[in-house]
Write a structure and sequence with these properties.
With 758 residues, this protein is α/β, with parallel strands linked by helices. The protein is 55% helix and 8% strand. It is built from 25 helices and 12 strands. The strands form 2 sheets. Strands 5-4-3-6-7-12-11-8-9-10 form a 10-stranded mixed β-sheet, with helices on both faces. A two-stranded antiparallel ribbon has the order 1-2. The N terminus is likely disordered.
Length: 758
């Protein structure tokens, strides 16, 4: 499928300048920007960036220090990481319509806009600074022709040549991507001629036995040499950056990228072999620079220097094309000012190009960029790390939408990610730390901006895969009191009025289980006027505004009692079914009787019930007290103690006193209860005080309750299961008990661990 432009050019009005810019999103009659195929759009810029300065300036040094055997190991190991990353990039690219932005586009559409931005912003800076690096390399090579009688070339001369080079590269790239890419074809020929000249010069002259043994004369061992060489293979992504300018990105990116890696690997296996058998001294070979190439190549500098200059210029052109397109994509996604996404009538991101050029030109003033170059290499490696992670996670999660035409095993992608991470540390632990801090800071900043993404990404699939695996594992575990968690289903009516119930459930839950807020609407789903979405949004908004975490659902039921029973049975999945239902205090005794009917039904399927009457009397600075009234007949006491303990873990209830009170009729009964509680409290490891109250003859429990707990902040009482038809009478009793008390919770423990939970 032909890639469609992100921005459609408009026709330039009569008299408009040739470089007039077109607002993004407008339409007109301007010609379609030229699109490129695999060879010109991907392969050429990628392979020329791979066959760059390191091949000319450092390969002799690598062979001289590591010997031919270890050099080939270094090449194969580096190329393996590059090839795996290229495979991962190809897999992701063949699963989507890759738009402008290349690697940034793929990562942001796979791992999310925040992670994409955390990688994309440094990627833009890396490509922009790379223009400066390559222009400095070109300037320094030209300084070899500085007249000797003028003395050593001054620093300002190098900077001046580098600055002019930046302006030239930016002007060409900003004028036309077609001109820039077509200019790389003769450059590719020049690089090929320099390689042929080296091969002819070495094979046609005096040769010696290959130097197999390492010397490490000017290096600190194998990994030091590896770190110097590895950046040579990182140029394969240059073509991916042209994704928005390709006719068929799904086809061109994998073909061009993989073939460029294969070509680079073949050349990098040939060049060290030629250098290892060349008739030069070990000292010459171990020196960085062009010395060996100039001495051994056919026609020497006549073919080598054009190849070097061509390699440098092509790399600079690749950066000047790729960097602005990343900036353009960032602007389109709202991560950079919108005006940077504007394009010229030829479809070029002119504003982004000249912005990149200005930054690169300003960087020339720094003079030397060696340390920054190390950071740039490490930042590129974080990009490769993310590409591999994106492909691996997509494969692991198994989203039905992930159907790439190139299949890569997730093990291979994760191996590539691990390799990228290790190489980052090998090159520079400090640069790795700086890169991690920088990208983490950008990610946190973008998260706090609460950016609204406009596409799906792999994160939802990842969490779904993790949840599914966890639930399947949980299903195999036998239930045990030690693993019990409160999964609370809270029935709410008016979200604003009942938000306190959700908050109390969250306090009890303590992030150890699941809280679900459920609103029941009496009606029929066959009614065309029934609205579920609006009350669901209201409920979610109320919970979000309160800073609480809970799942939300709205159910349409034919009657509230039967509906509550049905919803309770159906709520949850596998090992995360709701095990507690939570009601607020009704307006009248009839409502409470209905809740008690639900209690009786759900108790038969092992669901516990809480009924809360909220009436807070918390005074600032006063230590809170939780009163538990222990009867010992309904197996409610263990859950009452557990909920009091969970409540005390919240900052709002820090250091709250838990007082367990029990009413007895005789002193003998009091002694037995005191002994029982004295044994139980230390055993369950919950700090609580106990008080045994001897009931006077004829004294009502309600009077004792009100006398002792009127000054508490929370009172917890047990419930019994009323007999059918006795719900109204029991509701009268509960209203009498709750009257005049602070917040009161009535609890019925009907779970499978009743009496043994704690």
């Amino acid at each position: 499928m032909t890639a469609r432009p992100i921005v459609t050019p408009v026709e330039v009005a009569d008299g408009a300048p040739a470089g007039a810019l077109t607002p993004a999103g407008t339409t007109g009659a301007a010609p379609e920007p030229e699109r490129f195929g695999t060879f010109l759009g991907v392969y050429t810029p990628s392979v020329l960036t791979i066959l760059g300065l390191i091949m000319y300036l450092r390969f002799g040094w690598v062979v001289g220090n590591a010997g031919l055997g270890l050099t080939l190991v270094i090449v194969l190991l580096s190329s393996a990481i590059a090839f795996i990353t290229a495979l991962s990039a190809s897999a992701v690219a063949t699963n989507m319509r890759v738009g402008v932005g290349g690697e940034y586009y793929m990562i942001s559409h796979s791992l999310g806009l925040e992670l994409g931005g955390a990688i994309g912003i440094p990627l833009f800076l890396c490509r922009t600074l790379s223009i400066t690096f390559y222009c400095f390399g070109l300037a320094e090579s030209l300084m070899l022709f500085w007249p000797a009688e003028w003395g050593a070339a001054p620093g300002w001369a190098v900077q001046a040549v580098a600055g002019v080079s930046v302006i030239f590269v930016t002007a060409v790239a900003g004028r036309s991507a077609s001109l820039t890419l077509k200019a790389q074809v003769p450059i590719l020929v020049l690089v090929g001629l320099s390689l042929a000249a080296l091969a002819i010069g070495v094979l046609g002259g005096e040769r010696q036995a290959p130097r197999w043994d390492p010397s490490f004369q000017s290096a600190d061992g194998f990994w030091a040499v590896f770190a110097v060489f590895f950046p040579a293979v990182t140029g394969f992504a240059a073509g991916i950056g042209m994704s928005g300018d390709l006719r068929d990105p799904r086809r061109s990116i994998p073909r061009g990228t993989l073939w460029s890696v294969v070509t680079g690997t073949a050349v990098y296996l040939l060049v060290p072999t030629l250098l290892a058998i060349a008739d030069v001294s070990p000292e010459q070979l171990s020196q960085p620079g062009l010395g060996v190439w100039l001495e051994m190549a056919l026609l020497g500098s006549l073919l080598v220097f054009p190849g070097v200059w061509g390699a440098v210029l092509s790399s600079a052109f690749g950066s000047a094309l790729g960097g602005p397109r990343v900036l353009q994509a960032l602007a389109q996604d709202g991560l950079a000012p919108r005006f940077l996404s504007r394009v010229s009538k030829t479809g070029q991101p002119t504003v982004a190009t000249w912005t990149s050029g200005a930054i690169a030109l300003a960087a020339v003033a720094l003079g030397g960029l060696n340390e920054v170059a190390t950071l740039v290499t490490v930042l590129f490696l974080t990009l490769y790390l993310m590409i591999n992670l994106a492909a691996g996670i997509e494969e692991v999660t198994g989203d039905p939408s992930y159907r790439p035409t190139i299949k890569v095993p997730w093990q291979a992608s994760f191996l590539g990610a691990l390799g990228s991470l290790l190489v980052m540390f090998l090159i520079s632990p400090w640069a790795c730390l700086v890169a991690a801090v920088l990208e983490t800071a950008i990610w946190i900043f973008l998260r706090r901006r609460s950016i609204e993404k406009r596409w799906g990404d792999v994160r939802a699939g990842l969490w779904l895969a993790v949840a599914r695996a966890a639930l399947l594992r949980l299903r195999r575990h036998k239930a045990d009191p030690r693993n019990w968690r409160p999964h609370i289903l809270v029935f709410v009516g008016d979200p604003k009025r009942h938000i306190g119930l959700v908050r109390l459930a969250s306090w009890f839950n303590q992030s150890r289980g699941v809280v679900t807020a459920c609103r029941l609407i009496e009606g029929s789903l066959q009614d065309v006027d029934v609205d579920v979405e609006t009350p669901l949004q209201e409920l979610e908004r109320s919970i979000d505004d309160s800073g609480l975490s809970a799942f939300c659902e709205v159910n349409v039921v034919s009657d509230l009692v039967g509906g509550a029973i049905d919803v309770t049975q159906a709520n949850g999945i596998a090992g995360l079914q709701s095990n507690i239902i939570f009601f607020g205090w009704p307006r009248d005794k009839g409502g409470l009787a209905a809740q008690l009917r639900v209690l009786r039904s759900v108790a038969r399927v092992g669901k516990s019930t809480l009924i809360a009457r909220l009436r807070w009397n918390i005074e600032p600075g006063r230590k809170k007290r939780i009163d538990l009234w222990w009867g010992g007949l309904e197996n409610n006491g263990d859950m009452m103690l557990l909920f009091a303990y969970l409540l005390s873990l919240n900052p709002e209830w820090d250091e709250a006193r838990i007082v367990v009170r029990s009413v007895v009729s005789t002193e003998e009964e009091g002694e037995r209860m005191a002994a029982s509680l004295a044994t139980l409290i230390p055993e369950i490891r919950i700090r609580a005080e106990t008080e045994i109250i001897l009931r006077a003859e004829g004294e009502l429990f309600a009077d004792i309750l009100h006398r002792h707990s009127a000054g508490a902040h929370l009172v917890i009482l047990g419930l019994t299961t009323p007999s059918p038809g006795a719900e109204a009478q029991y509701a009268d009793r509960l209203f009498e008990l709750a009257e005049g008390l602070p917040t009161t919770i009535f609890l019925k423990n009907a779970g499978e661990f009743a009496g043994s939970l704690v």
